[in-house]
Amino acid sequence: xxxxxxxxxxxxxxxxxxxxxxxxxxxxxxxxxxxxxxxxxxxxxxxxxxxxxxxxxxxxxxxxxxxxxxxxxxxxxxxxxxxxxxxxxxxxxxxxxxxxxxxxxxxxxxxxxxxxxxxxxxxxxxxxxxxxxxxxxxxxxxxxxxxxxxxxxxxxxxxxxxxxxxxxxxxxxxxxxxxxxxxxxxxxxxxxxxxxxxxxxxxxxxxxxxxxxxxxxxxxxxxxxxxxxxxxxxxxxxxxxxxxxxxxxxxxxxxxxxxxxxxxxxxxxxxxxxxxxxxxxxxxxxxxxxxxxxxxxxxxxxxxxxxxxxxxxxxxxxxxxxxxxxxxxxxxxxxxxxxxxxxxxxxxxxxxxxxxxxxxxxxxxxxxxxxxxxxxxxxxxxxxxxxxxxxxxxxxxxxxxxxxxxxxxxxxxxxxxxxxxxxxxxxxxxxxxxxxxxxxxxxxxxxxxxxxxxxxxxxxxxxxxxxxxxxxxxxx
Amino acid sequence: xxxxxxxxxxxxxxxxxxxxxxxxxxxxxxxxxxxxxxxxxxxxxxxxxxxxxxxxxxxxxxxxxxxxxxxxxxxxxxxxxxxxxxxxxxxxxxxxxxxxxxxxxxxxxxxxxxxxxxxxxxxxxxxxxxxxxxxxxxxxxxxxxxxxxxxxxxxxxxxxxxxxxxxxxxxxxxxxxxxxxxxxxxxxxxxxxxxxxxxxxxxxxxxxxxxxxxxxxxxxxxxxxxxxxxxxxxxxxxxxxxxxxxxxxxxxxxxxxxxxxxxxxxxxxxxxxxxxxxxxxxxxxxxxxxxxxxxxxxxxxxxxxxxxxxxxxxxxxxxxxxxxxxxxx
Lengths: 476, 329
Prior knowledge:
The structure holds two protein chains of two kinds. Chain A is built from 18 helices and 13 strands. Chain A has helices spanning 21-47, 64-80, 95-104, 115-123, 131-134, 145-149, 174-179, 191-204, 220-231, 251-266, 278-286, 299-307, 343-362, 364-376, 391-401, 409-419, 432-448, 454-472, and strands at 2-7, 10-15, 51-56, 84-89, 110-114, 161-173, 209-212, 237-238, 245-246, 290-296, 314-318, 328-337, 424-426. By secondary structure, chain B is mainly alpha-helical. Chain B has a two-stranded antiparallel sheet.
């Protein structure tokens, strides 16, 4: 028998001789046996992992070394927990994509959410109840009460585990500071200095933004406006839960928006792109297009992992605080499990949360192994964090990783020096993301309309914000 | 002329119908409606072939439509059991201050697209049909933007719309002495900027439709018009447009329906900004459903979707009725 097969543009001629029936029978029997063995082996292999979970890994676009480092940790976990199979999926929390994935049931089994959403999602039954598993770990009792409160719903159920906390800071480009003959080790400590330094940066580099602000209509503009309002002593809400009252039109918010208006329209130091979001701000900063901007103290890790920020240009300072009651907005990240997970998956997920998020903070061996692994893969170790555990546990963990710290401490020195003295203020408690969404358009208006009427904009947004609060608690 | 002659006049065809009875075709039998007859006549086979289609339409079109209608009367976060809330979702939408803004912006987009985007493909098609050489090449060039994925087109145009003085469009404007524009970062310029990109991206499909329709126009009409002394403009006005009127009416209603549902451009360019100046109805629906990370307004999203469907249905019916006499002249 002759067959001609075309493969990749070539013709391959196969000569197949007719086979006697007995030999066919033997061949079929052998093939059946081989298939049976293979199926048996496959079923044995698949029987081994008794539970499978998917876990959030790094943001899309993470560097190869960051991904390799994460995969190594997955292998270490699977080796230490036979019977649990872990599949990692790239994950980047944004309000719209998270809501879509939550509704569609396509979130990984273990994922992260901001402090702002933990309690609300838990109250709406959108997170798995982790109480009995979480409380079985010795570290649970050592949580900073304010941090674990973010992951505890109104019934006292633990629905999420705090894994990191941050304070908002002033990110600045040391190279652009040097180019403008400013001292990179002496970043601005007042908003007036921010304005003059931004002018100096633009004068030296006309194509960069001296000061930039997230202005995208994806809640980030409202988040930064809230941060700036806090820095001027304002608050966006009073009260909690359904009784919360929106107070957008406060003196701090007005002062912050007036400052933004001056930087944008009078000083003209905010560049030409006013629609930046969290990720695109990081990219632009890492690309040397931004002199200063406001974001979380933990953002350097992402800039290394996703934006390949050149070593040496990064600097972090505490936010200038001005006026009575001024403080730095603080937030954080919670690890959570999706509500449709089985009990076995929840138990396995808690083991992963313990291994990946908690052990590097509470276990000397794991902390050192984690730090060594990160250092080997050129990932940052020593980025400023806020303690989610009590002070003693935090200081101990810092001591363990001290020899492996590879981020330039001088870059974080201005922040570390000032932040401990500053008041840390949590994000608005009720309908937080919706509130930020309502404030987005105020920031956009100020950035795109020279004649923007700031009090009127805040008043209109305040009505929308109050409606958002009412809607958030409409079902309760 | 044979009664089966395909070019027989209609009158002859009508007259020939009774001849079926005497040409050996059996008359319908009395037991035609029984299930057994249906099976014998191949009903099962037809059903078998229909099943994949029914499944696909049922699962991906009809079931979601039914769910949407139900959801518009419910409060649900798609995790916990839904609660019936009557017309509360519709009331919330109507009283939302963003609702009139979204309607106004959608009308502005549709209006601008009609004003600028509707004539462009027609002009392009007429010009292409008039050229004697490279007609195929011009058709390909006109259609090329349609082949580019919409997201890629928008990212490309975002670069063009860079508000810096060295942005692509601003550089071109600089050559003729016009200063840099803010484009999608200006509340006044954002919507026209979106329409401009949308026209570029979508004109190709309509150009192809018009080119096909133009081939059906009897050349003798042009020759007769020329003999009567008509120039290009008069031929276009008195011959081309009347001959294309049916196609023009269809493409107009399709464009209005399409632009009323505009989403990709405002979502990818501006996310509805700056300051809600490009917030459209579809974007508001999306924001209801997914703008809040807690995803609690699916009912309102469904309610506004139904309102949009109802509006477009009524509008289409009125449009078809109003233009019926014109399209059948």
